[in-house]
Amino acid sequence: MSDTTLPVADGGSLRRYAVDLARRHPRLLWTALVLHVLAAVAGLAAPRLLGGLVEAVETGSTTSHVDRVVLALFGFLVLQTVLTRYARYVSQVLGEQVLAELREDFVQNSLALPVGVVESAGSGDLLTRTSRDVEQLGWSVRWALPEWTIACVTAVLTFAAALSVGWWVALPCLFGVPPLVVGLRWYLARAKDGYLRESATYSQISATLTETVEGSRTVEALGLGRERVTAIDADIDDSYAAERYTLHLRTVFFPSMDISYIIPTVLTLLYGGYLYSQGSVSLGDVTTAVLYVQMLIDPVDRVVAILDELQMGAASLARLLGVAQVPDDREVSGREPAGEQLAAHDVRFSYVEGRDVLHGVDLDVGVGERIAMVGPSGAGKSTLGRLLAGIHPPRTGEVTVGGVGLVELPLGDLRGHVALVTQEHHVFVGSLRENLALAAPEGATEDDVRAALAAVDALDWADALPEGLSTEVGSGGHTLHAAQAQQVALARLVLADPHTLVLDEATSLIDPRAARHLERSLAAVLEGRTVIAIAHRLFSAHDADRVAVVEDGVIAELGSHDDLVAADGSYAALWRSWNGS
Ligand code: ADP
Fold first, then answer.
1. Separation of CA 540 from chain center
2. Which of 111, 131, 250, 346 has a CA that sits 20 to 30 A from residue 244's CA?
3. For 279, how many CA atoms within 13 A lie in the half-sphere containing its CB?
4. Which one-letter DSSP state was computed for residue 396?
5. What are phi and psi of 428, to 5 degrees?
């Protein structure tokens, strides 16, 4: 379904965001770093002490000297343990805070996404980003980032300590650098794309799965089971290939790392032995140097191995930040509408670039007027309805209320002017009261909520629920049947109180037994408002003030029922066929 996916942030904005996040917590960051440095320094005492011990034994030392060294070793071990504990604690606190902010930013950005973008990108992509990417990033921030920092600090300090034994130690270490750098560069050049591709394949799997589940009735009705399984199999094959590729990267990379670690240790021992035989260094120095170089392996290995983890984290972060890069399709201007008149001027719109489905629509809706929109299926009625309700911004031209473009109004205000009513009536998880109150931008009192329910004739059943308005409804809660859910949607409209409503097939799928009841609820909501009804049954057009006939993305005819019948155009033809005359 979705060939366009949401954007992915580039390296530059990724770095800017990371720096910005770090800057928000300078104290925690520095405390963590200082503690890690101190812990690493405490850990560096051991090789020194052991080197000294070797020398002491060589020169014939006493057991009391050995005891003192052992005691000192123990003391440094305890010190290192305590420091490490606090260092980790502070890092974790920092990690959790950063993660919480990341999640908040992501939620904000997701909610700000234009509806059109979510529709064309498919919900699978957004779903993978909210689940898998947030999880991956959580792992990176909680674990990988602190560990990596510790490893870096330890590696640098250990190397400094090794050099403090003598500059000659640098030489064997140098030989380990080329394989390390070559292997790392080879890997990093490929890893990010590899992991991004891997994540994209997960998105595709979720997309296909959600699509199959959401459309399960269609799948069953048309016997599409096989096709869906084949589609999912193809997605899994892609995912398998992507995972194999990153696995291949790791199987080349990790062995090349191991080689670069062994070289310095062996060379330090050989070179140190040679220098000792020349009498230029002591046995204690060689011991200390070899121990330090060996100690270097562990942190360097962690630096490199966690880079892998961080890469995956960076790929996830790029996908999370990418959501913020979707250009906003609204631009709040702060202008206040003068009046309630809705108007469209030369409106053009396309779902797919280069294929307009509306070709210059003009419509001035009178305040309090009832307009019925009719026309063949696919003509663009629903699309025009969505544009008139401000769901999509027009590609060119404008839709205005009181002279101000709908895209200039803050979303909360827009709902107070014009709202779209469709067959979709979602019941959110939460109490019935919350389900209604969310429609009122400034919050609703208990009286408001009850009045809204009463207006749509729903107060009786609402009060009869196990816990009245506090009853938990929505997925997992008390189940409302379709007609009740529709009434909840209507009551929300009463609370949002828009002066103009766009009805799209508002009541056509209702259980016929409940239909009459609902017609009354709907009529109560329509009372005193401007209404544009997308009429799929002609008789409602008969009652409208004006009828707009939409054909091929333009309003082909516009006028009262009687005028249009007299004009003898397509509406008249429709009307005749409807009446069977
Ligand atoms: P109507 O309500 O008159 O049946 P629509 O407004 O639903 O017509 O559709 C107008 C045209 O826009 C049709 O060609 C339809 O295929 C296309 N269209 C509708 N929705 C979408 C969408 N989400 N993405 C792409 N094309 C769409």
1. 43
2. 131
3. 0
4. E
5. -80, 155
Q: What 3-state class would DSSP assign to 431?
A: strand
Tens digits of residue pLDDT in 292-316: 999 999 999 889 888 878 888 888 8
Query: Is the CB of residue 373 below 6 angstroms from any atom belonging to ligand 1?
Result: no
- Same domain for 296 and 408, yes or no, is no
CATH number of the domain where residue 74 is located: 1.20.1560.10
Rounded to 5 degrees, what are φ and ψ at 333?
-105, -20
DSSP state of 167: G
Query: Edge-to-edge, what's the strand order for the sheet holding 355-365?
Result: 355-365, 342-352, 396-401, 404-405
User: What CATH number should be reported for the domain holding residue 367?
Assistant: 3.40.50.300
| Bridge partners for 546 per DSSP | 371
Round to whole Å and give the CA distance between 126 and 6.
Answer: 8
**CA 419 – CA 501 distance, rounded (Å):** 5
Exposure b/e, 234-269, CB count within 10 A at least 16 = b: ebeebbeebbebbeebeeebeeebeebbebbbebbb
**The total number of structural domains that make up the chain:** 2
Structure tokens at 523: 């009529």
Atom of ligand 1 nearest to the CA of 504: 2
> Residue 274 Cα, ligand 1 centroid: separation in angstroms?
82
**Token pair of 361 as six digits:** 């629509």
What's the gap in Å between 356 CA and the centre of ligand 1? 10
Poorest-pLDDT segment among 143-147, 176-180, 368-372, 390-394: 143-147
Q: Where in the sequence is the domain holding 240, given as residue range(s)?
A: 11-325
User: Which is it for the CA torsion 528, 533, 538, 541, positive or negative?
Assistant: positive
Helix (H) or strand (E) holding 495: helix 482-496
CA of 376 to the centre of ligand 1 (A): 12
- Runs of H (alpha helix) within 327-464: 381-388, 411-417, 432-437, 446-455, 459-463
Mean pLDDT of the chain: 87
> Looking at the predicted structure, is the pLDDT value of residue 2 above 50?
no
Q: How many CB atoms lie within 10 A of CB 29?
A: 18
5 domain-assigned: no
Residues in the chain: 581
151 burial (CB, 10 Å; 0-12 / 13-18 / 19+) is buried
Q: What would the two tokens of residue 487 be?
A: 């009434």
The angle subtended at Cα 279 by Cα 278 and Cα 280, nearest 5°, is 95
* Residues 348 and 294 reside in one and the same domain: no
Torsion of CA 304, 306, 310, 311, to 10 degrees: 50
Residues 465-478: pLDDT tens digits? 999 989 999 888 88
